[in-house]
């Protein structure tokens, strides 16, 4: 690992003041320290923000929104009963990511800001063709661009999450969907800016009775998604009053599909409808490096996630979050 | 540069002067504090061999810079047994053959201690397998590991109930 200067500011203002070109923020370190070991990321200065005060709260605001501090650990957010009750699909996505150890360390803001999955960085130089399963089939114009690796961000983008940011010029906020951009740098943060919180609007909780995050991977646990879908329905009697659908592991950013949402609105749930919505979600997908299977996998994942959401959010988190087999118990559940 | 941190490691207070900010908690324990019980496997957060508890929570010590841990309480495999008595999780791993070569075992045991403290898996084998998925065992002793965690969970819960009564 390349040598770096190390700063431990005591306050948020000191942290912003400590930034200089080439510096990086250190939160949980689960992504950054890993990439520093391979040399893929070589900060000249590390600013340790992991213990800054005031950034680790989960607060319900007067307008019904929920604010999540940047340093809330993934495990703590998923395990917060009030949060998981209001946004069960987000808790399910969090618990489907990484391992117990990593979720105890990884932060909310770090998840938003994470670099592409490590197959993209076999060494210091990126090699996008090293793993075709991690290449985008949407939103990249057929070019070999690695997918955004997050599970957490997939339901967030469907729920209109807002990112609160602080920089040398003061605070600002943007929609999570606008945090990402094609090419480098991958986010629209201005150098020196820091994500301080994430906010879910009050309306996001209205989907809690019918929402699921479904993750398909090449082993049962502790693996990146091959395809994932966050599906939420707000029901009005037998009809879908409003639907949200977003996909993970298919595009350079968490991929929300407005066309599919529009198609679902006002309809009665059913297999045919969900298949048409999934078709609409994957319309225009292009395979790269032989990963055409990902298009069909994502289409089926989206349709199944919608069916699972229509069946209702389970009262208890399944043993295997995000798995259609999660409600089974016993040895056969790992098939 | 010189960074001074204060740690409690297995109940012993220690002042550590770091000459390098790159030192991970794993390397601090093994290379500088002569505590080789915590193992280095992948050094990338993927295998779990380096699992320790920091302030009671299981984490990968290979991805944690020691300089960020001033004031923390660290528990390693060396700190589990009380005198000659094995921790219930250690005893359960012996009883259920929860290992073969043993290299991943300290990490497996620390992860199990952390998982049981989290309380989310109970004695459901499916939830235990999911909760232990951050610990790889190349000998594939997973069956015994799951049984050991299940058994230790039951024993520790029973002991806690007795204490409460």
Give an account of the 3D structure:
The complex is a heterodimer of chains A (335) and B (165). Chain A is 27% helix and 19% strand. By secondary structure, chain A is α+β, with helices and mostly antiparallel strands. Chain A has one domain: Uridine Diphospho-n-acetylenolpyruvylglucosamine Reductase, domain 3. In chain A, strand 2 (23-26), helix 2 and strand 3 form a beta-alpha-beta unit. Chain B has 165 residues and is of the alpha+beta class. Helix content of chain B is 36%, strand content 15%. In chain B, strand 1 (3-9) and strand 2 form a beta hairpin. The longest helix of chain B has 23 residues, at 142-164. Chains A and B meet through helix 2 and helix 6 of A and strand 4, helix 3 and helix 4 of B.
Q: How do the strands and helices of this protein lay out in sequence?
A:
The complex is a heterodimer of chains A (335) and B (165).
Chain A: E1 5-7, H1 12-18, E2 23-26, H2 32-38, E3 45-48, E4 58-60, E5 66-69, H3 74-78, H4 81-86, H5 88-96, H6 100-105, H7 108-113, H8 153-158, E6 162-167, E7 170-175, E8 194-200, E9 211-216, E10 227-236, E11 239-248, E12 255-256, H9 258-264, H10 271-282, H11 293-311
Parallel strand pairs in A: 1-3, 2-3
Antiparallel strand pairs in A: 4-5, 5-8, 6-7, 6-8, 9-10, 10-11, 11-12
Helix pairs in contact in A: 9-10, 10-11
Chain B: E1 3-9, E2 12-18, H1 25-32, E3 51-54, E4 57-60, E5 73-75, H2 88-95, H3 105-118, H4 125-131, H5 142-164
Parallel strand pairs in B: 1-5
Antiparallel strand pairs in B: 1-2, 3-4, 3-5
Instruction: Kindly name the structural category of chain A.
Output: alpha+beta
Q: Per DSSP, what share of the residues of chain B sits in E-state strands of 2 or more residues?
A: 15-25%
- Gyration radius from CA atoms of chain A, angstroms: 19 Å
Tally the structural domains of chain A: 1
Instruction: Determine the fraction of residues in helical runs of chain B and give it as a percent range.
Output: 25-40%
- Average per-residue pLDDT of chain B, rounded, comes to 96
The CATH superfamily of the largest domain in chain B appears as Beta-grasp domain
Q: Identify the strand order in the major beta sheet of chain B.
A: 2-1-5-3-4
Number of strands of chain A: 12
**String of helices and strands of chain A:** EHEHEEEHHHHHHEEEEEEEHHH
| Neighbour order of strands in the largest sheet of chain A | 4-5-8-6-7
């Amino acid at each position: 690992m390349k040598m770096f200067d190390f700063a431990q500011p005591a306050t948020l203002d000191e942290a912003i003041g400590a930034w200089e070109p080439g510096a990086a923020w250190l939160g949980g370190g689960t992504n950054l320290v890993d990439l520093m070991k391979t040399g893929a990321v070589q900060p000249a200065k590390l600013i340790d923000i992991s213990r800054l005060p005031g950034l680790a709260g989960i607060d319900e605001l007067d307008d019904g929104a929920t604010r999540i501090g940047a340093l809330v650990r993934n495990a703590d957010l998923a395990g917060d009963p009030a949060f998981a009750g209001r946004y069960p699909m987000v808790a399910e996505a969090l618990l489907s990511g990484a391992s117990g150890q990593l979720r105890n360390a990884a932060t909310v803001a770090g998840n938003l800001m994470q670099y592409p999955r490590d197959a993209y960085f076999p060494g210091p130089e990126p090699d996008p063709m090293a793993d075709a399963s991690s290449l985008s089939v949407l939103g990249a114009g057929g070019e070999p661009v690695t997918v955004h690796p997050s599970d957490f961000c997939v339901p967030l983008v469907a729920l209109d999450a807002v990112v609160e940011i602080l920089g040398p010029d003061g605070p600002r906020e943007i929609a999570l969907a606008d945090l990402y951009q094609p090419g480098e740098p991958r986010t629209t943060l201005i150098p020196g800016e820091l994500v301080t919180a994430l906010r879910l609007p009050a309306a996001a909780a209205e989907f809690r009775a019918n929402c699921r995050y479904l993750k398909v991977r090449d082993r049962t646990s502790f693996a990146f998604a091959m395809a994932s879908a966050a599906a939420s329905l707000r029901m009005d009697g037998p009809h879908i009053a409003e639907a949200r659908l977003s996909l993970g592991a298919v595009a350079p950013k968490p991929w929300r599909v407005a066309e599919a949402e529009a198609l679902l609105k006002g309809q009665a749930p059913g297999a045919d409808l969900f298949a048409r919505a999934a078709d609409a979600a994957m319309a225009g997908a292009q395979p790269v490096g032989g990963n055409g299977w990902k298009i069909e996998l994502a289409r089926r994942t989206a349709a199944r996630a919608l069916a699972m959401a229509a069946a209702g959010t389970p009262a208890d988190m399944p043993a295997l979050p995000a798995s259609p087999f999660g409600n089974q118990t016993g040895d056969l559940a790992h098939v | 540069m010189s960074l001074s941190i204060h740690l409690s490691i297995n109940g012993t207070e220690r002042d550590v002067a770091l000459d390098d900010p790159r030192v991970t908690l794993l390397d601090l324990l093994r290379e500088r504090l002569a505590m080789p019980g915590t193992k280095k496997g992948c050094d990338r957060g993927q295998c779990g061999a380096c699992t320790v508890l920091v302030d009671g929570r299981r984490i990968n010590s290979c991805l944690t810079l020691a300089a960020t841990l001033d004031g923390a309480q660290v528990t390693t495999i060396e700190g589990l047994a009380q005198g000659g008595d094995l921790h219930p999780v250690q005893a359960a791993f012996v009883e259920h053959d929860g290992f073969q070569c043993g290299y991943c075992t300290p990490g497996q045991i620390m992860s199990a201690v952390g998982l049981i403290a989290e309380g989310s898996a109970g004695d459901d084998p499916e939830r235990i397998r999911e909760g232990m998925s951050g610990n790889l065992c190349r000998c594939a002793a997973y069956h015994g590991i799951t049984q050991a965690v299940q058994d230790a969970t039951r024993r520790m819960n029973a002991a806690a109930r007795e204490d409460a009564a």
